[in-house]
Amino acid sequence: MRFIKMIPNMMTLGNLYCGFLSIGFAAYGQYNNAAILIIIGMMLDSMDGRAARMLKADSTLGKELDSLADIVTFGVAPSFLVYYTYFSQFGMLGMAISGLFPLFGAFRLARFNISTSKTNMHYFIGVPITAAGGILAILTLFGHNLPNIVTTVVFTALCFLMVSRIRIPSFKEIPLPKYGTIVTIFLGCLLFVLYKGTYNSYPYLIYIATPLYIAYIAYMFKKGKERKEE
């Protein structure tokens, strides 16, 4: 029973480890691997909270651990990825600019943590760091043909959108199964890998994580429908 209660925190630590591995892959020039690991981190981040509620394992430790994992996987890792792929040409200036992303993300997370009880659950205040980091990862994965100015504009916009007071609709407002958007992203990435025929250069973890995640989504969607019918 105690082990079961630890499952949500293990998912969160898995998210953090994906961020660490992403930084390592980016440092070795394996940018596609680095981007996919950030996306896998998105999967784990979307699961740990729901798993904690389902297993009645909510804890203050888990919430704090989640924030620490998010700043690494969706703040530090994407900033390194963008630096190595786009901003390294500017030398130390590029490094300084890349470092702004986790700063804005950390501020956004801190503001969210102290205002959770007052926030309407139908929307977020500012772009969540998970979404911002995921967008940068996807931009790196699919944006080889885009000019650098596009990445620069998106990077700058995401920094300010994270700390903005703009209301961003949550997944509850989208008429799709829970986390349907993230499932679509995973399927798109998987199809891209298979289409290019370069699957041997990607982490094998994605071929395990993707079907398991889709099965998890299907289970949660079915369970939600059964609750509505009761």
Folded structure, characterized:
With 230 residues, the protein is mainly α. It has one domain (2-172): CDP-alcohol phosphotransferase transmembrane (TM) domain (Four Helix Bundle (Hemerythrin (Met), subunit A)), CATH 1.20.120. 74% of the residues lie in helices and 3% in strands. The protein has nine helices and two strands, in the order H-H-H-H-H-E-H-H-E-H-H. The protein has helices at 2-27, 31-54, 60-85, 92-98, 100-115, 129-142, 148-162, 180-196, 205-229; strands spanning 123-125, 167-169. Strands 1-2 form a two-stranded antiparallel sheet. Helix 2 (31-54) packs antiparallel against helix 3 (60-85), helix 2 (31-54) runs antiparallel to helix 6 and helix 2 packs parallel to helix 9. The longest helix is centred in the N-terminal third of the chain and has 26 residues, at 2-27. It starts with a helix and ends with a helix.
